[in-house]
Amino acid sequence: MGRGIIEVPGDPHLHRRTTTTVIPKFLRAFAPVVFLGLVAPGTGAAQGIPLAIEQMPLAQNGAVARGGTVTPVYEGWYELPASGFLLYFGYYNRNTEEVVEVEVGAANAVEGPTGGRDAGQPTVFQPGRAWGVFGVEVPADFGDRTVEWSLTVRGRTAVIPGHLRPDWHVPAITGDVMGNRPPTIRFEERGEEGSGPGGLWGAPREATVGSPVPLTVWASDDGTPTSRFRPGANPVTLTWFKHRGPGDVDFEAKTGTVPNAGGQMSTLATFSQAGAYILHVRATDDSGVASAGNEQCCWTNGYVDFIVRP
Known about the structure:
The protein is an all-beta fold. The protein contains two helices and 19 strands.
């Protein structure tokens, strides 16, 4: 535990567990620009040596077209309705044109209460910042322990600890200061509902290479308006992604919208090669994902396992 962690003064996303620096919640939304002027600790700091890009995990000026690295990000935690907590994570892929893929294993591992490396983390990293793409459930007595996600890309490793520190608590499912709650989703019309970053897992499914398979998701939202939409007109946006899998996935319609009062989006997915896949659907209300800031209130994840046969 703790291997490869870089200590960055003032950056709670990438640090040793011994650091005592805390970033106020109101600054978290500005993390991409707050740390651009940092210098390395120790002798390097005394000499004024600038931090490497990998030591500034959310530095927007580190973006490149291709050949860059990917940094995991710890978003925060919230209480689960039944018992325990959910710690959830996103990432920043510095490449603007390159999708990076890293299989679960030594180079893409989550170490925590499960005792293994696989906690549902993505193996596919789309360009840019992805907020809250998966979560790890921990028990009510988790205390001051940590869950660590380590990711190695192009020989550079970043390890991000998730924890239950009070200043990282977020109202992801209870609503923000405006009372805005995340959308709800279902994979069956009258099936189980899920909401928030922890979301909902659908029943496992099967498919055949090259044969389109239907995907349908039902969604609704509380309809809390924002300044960008008039009351009652703010829809739910549904977007599909490949979360894991060995081949390409072609979505007939990758994105669609439904009324906040409720509706369904249907599309077709076609797999290019056999293997195990996870598809990820994100339901977002009109306030969006990045603009949610530290409240993290306004999207819900859904996941479906697929076994694809030749």
